[in-house]
Amino acid sequence: MALKTTQVSVQRWHEMLATGDMSILNELLAEDVVFRSPVAYNPYPGKQVVFFILTNVIQIFENFTYHREFYSEDGLNVVLEFSAHVGEKKLKGIDMIQFNEQGQIIDFEVMLRPKSGLEALAAQMGQRMAAFMPKA
To answer: pLDDT of the chain along its 136 residues, tens only?
Structure first.
């Protein structure tokens, strides 16, 4: 049952990327979702900040393509392998996504390589995050 629910959510994720309809992300993210960045040590908790991060990363990535999907036995976890460009830099990575029983994302972790691609993404996201995050 969980596998079917997760597969439907992953299909919605792909639909969102194909159409650019970011309202789909609102239905996919749980309120208590956590984003684990390849750049920052501490995770980012909460739907509002995760929505901001994901919508901005989607804008930064060029030639974004998913290649393979791997599902866990319990059906609540999926790994999506992708490639993209950030400016002139190429990168490869994986999205490790954990879903709840309702098919909402509760944990989203990204791993990227090589370092040059990660640094290019970090530079662009750093500017956007500075504008978004409240000043301490």
So the answer is: 788 999 999 999 999 999 999 999 999 999 999 999 998 889 999 999 999 999 999 999 999 999 999 999 999 999 999 999 999 999 999 999 999 999 999 999 999 999 998 999 988 888 888 877 666 5
How far apart are alpha carbons 121 and 12 in whole angstroms? 25
- pTM greater than the 0.85 cutoff: yes
Structure tokens at 42: 């501490």
Give the Å distances, CA to CA, from 116 to 84, 85, 93, 127.
13, 11, 13, 17
Count Cα atoms within 13 angstroms, Cβ side, for 32: 2
